[in-house]
């Protein structure tokens, strides 16, 4: 028959709530959403699903998403700021 995983093995393969919110922040930042809109989404996640993240996780993922947007999508970034050409 099938083997059952122990509860600790199942928990280690699951994503934590704070990490899930952090990844949402990262993706929205990478897509170019402004901070106020991202904060609104995070607030809705907190109110609707009780998903929270620390300010440190929020800021870290926001910065990473913006940096990856500039690095991986340079043409999009240059259209956003035509004066930098």
Largest sheet: none
Q: How would you classify the helix and strand content by structural class?
A: mainly alpha
Proportion of residues in extended strands: under 5%
Query: Share of helix among residues?
Result: over 70%
Count of DSSP helices?
Answer: 5
Number of beta strands = 0
Mean pLDDT: 84
Low-confidence stretches: none
H-E string: HHHHH
What characteristic shape results from the CA principal axes? Answer: globular
Alpha carbon gap, first and last residue: 64 Å
- Please give the radius of gyration in angstroms: 17 Å
Write up this protein:
- The protein contains five helices and no strands.
- The protein has 85 residues and is an all-alpha fold.
- The mean pLDDT is 84.
SSE layout and pairings?
Elements: H1 7-12, H2 17-30, H3 35-49, H4 55-72, H5 74-80
Name the features.
85 residues; 0% strand; mainly alpha; single chain; globular
Please outline what is shown here.
This protein has helices at 7-12, 17-30, 35-49, 55-72, 74-80.
């Amino acid at each position: 028959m099938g083997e059952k995983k122990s509860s600790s093995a199942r928990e280690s393969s699951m994503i934590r709530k704070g990490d899930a919110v952090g990844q949402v922040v990262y993706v929205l930042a990478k897509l170019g959403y402004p901070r106020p809109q991202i904060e609104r989404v995070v607030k809705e996640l907190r109110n609707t699903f009780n998903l929270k993240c620390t300010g440190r996780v929020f800021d870290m993922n926001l910065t990473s998403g913006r940096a990856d947007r500039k690095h991986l999508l340079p043409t999009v970034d240059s259209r956003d700021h035509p004066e930098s050409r």
